[in-house]
Transcriptional regulator LysR family
Amino acid sequence: MTLRQLEYFVAVVDEGSISRAAERVRVAQPSVSQQIRALEQELGGALLERLPRSTRLTPLGRVFEPQARSVLLAAETAREVVRGELRQPTGQLEIATVRSMAGTLLPGPISRWRAAHPGVTIRLHEFPHRAELEERFQSGVADVAIGPRPQRWDGEIHELGWEEFVVVLPADDPELARPRISLASLADRDWVLYASEHGLSELIAFAFAHAGYIAAPAVRTSQVDAAARLAAAGLGPAMVPIGSVPHELADLARPLQPAFGRAIAAYTRETLSPLAATYVASLREGSWPPVPDGALIAP
C-alpha cells in the first residue's frame, strides 16, 4: 500500500469516476485503474463498484475511505511540519565547547544566530579540557563542537579564526610601558598558573617552552577570571584569552611578542542536523580575528 494508491482512491471517490480522477491527479486513466486494482488485491476485496459512467463505494470501500483520508492527512501534516522546520527551525541545538570559550567567543555568534531562529533553544555542553570535548563529542554529545582545532578528527573541520592570549600585570609593573611583552622578559617571575587539569594549563606550558623555560607558580587556579584578578593584585603575571580579561582590567593587559594564541574551529560528525548546518554556516560567515603574521599558535 502506497500513498499514491490512497491518493488515487480518494480522488476517484471525490470525482465519482476514474476518468475525472485521472484528470485531477494528472496521470493516464489506465495508471489510476491499475493502482486501484493493486490496492484492492492487497486488501482482499473490491473498494469500488464500476458502473458504466461512474463509480461508487462498496461496503468495504466505505469502511476504508475514512482511514485512507486520515493517512493522507497525516502525511501532508508531516510534510508541512518538515517544510516549516526547514523554513523556520524549532527545537534544540546542542553545542559542545570548552569552558574557557563558553563565555567569551560563543555569546556573540549564538545571539546573532538565535535572533534568526527564535524558536530554537540552545543547550551548551562545557568541558574543562579539549581532549574531553573531543572524546565526548565523538561519543554523540551535542550537534556541533566549537573549540581549539582538533588534532585528530575524521569528520568535517571548519576553520574559523584564532583566539589571542595576553599577559595581565599589576598596575605598577614596569613591563606595562611596553606595547607588547616578550615571555623571555618574565622568565624570573612567579606566575599565576592554571590547575593541571585545566585545559589552558598545557597551552600555557607550550608558550613557556617556546620561550625556553618552565614557569614557576605563585598560585594555581581553575578560573580564568580569577587568574586575571590575581595577576592584577600582584600575585604574578597571568596569561589569559583576550576575551576573558575583565573590562576594568583592560589597561593591565598586553599582547605578547610574538603574538600567541590558538586556532578556533567548528567541527562536526558525519551526520549534520539541519539546525546544526545553519549554525555552522553562520559561524563561517561571521567575523573572526585572522592569525597575524609570525604568530605562535598552540598545537
